[in-house]
Give the backbone structure.
Amino acid sequence: MSLKARIAAARDRLSEAGIDRRQAAFDAELLAREALGWDRARLLAWHGDPPPPGFDAAYEPLIARRVRREPVTTIIGRREFMGLEFEVTSEVLSPRPETEFIVEEALACLEPVEGRAPFTLVDVGTGSGCLAICLARALPAARVIATDVSGTALAVAGRNAQRHQVDGRIDFRRVSMLDGITGPLPVIVSNPPYVATGDIRGLSPEVREFEPFVALDGGSDGLWLIRTLLARSAAALEPGGWLIFEFGYGQEDGVREAIAASGLGLVRIREDLQGIPRTAVTRKNRG
């Protein structure tokens, strides 16, 4: 059996396990490259040949884990975000492409602030540390505080900060929300839990069974932590300061109401690449 045929057979197994066929083909190839230690160009050049010695012994356990619906990111232990590679474990959410919008929006909002050194920004619920680390790399004058209630998540974030050489400028704290953090702050960013508790059971197995419940559960309507974040941020931000956060599908109306109730002003809501409202940019009144 050629390497190409071996990967095709793995694709069929993944598809039979309930994974979309296009995704199954992508995953089967990616895991093959992981087992081989090859890039895609080398795999395509050799895919008509028999698998090299030891391939099946390395490949089969990876495919077996994916058949059980474990996400590829936790199988290989990494995920790309904003062009950087991050360690990912079952203790943190796997960074999503739409979360990159938070970084983009924060950088746009902070452009006038960047020349005012030093300044502090806060990442609430840092998880893998992807937001805090990307912002620290882009803003050399910034001091970043990154909070999370999970000690194991903070350990992952700390290793990611070391990998990207910004650990000296990020203060990781095991606290809830903004506990112990006094303002005034120019910007707060967050990808908070926003899945309604009753909806978690209906999520894909990759999310429901392999990502931390505490990073998903947003309370009965999914907005409990967002409302808390808004209230706490309204008190901690400086006049003209920014809160930028992510929210879920179908939550735009509730988010707009929560922002209005908090006293912050809604500047804009950004849609993801599928046209789904996803990122809220809010600001504290300068008065």
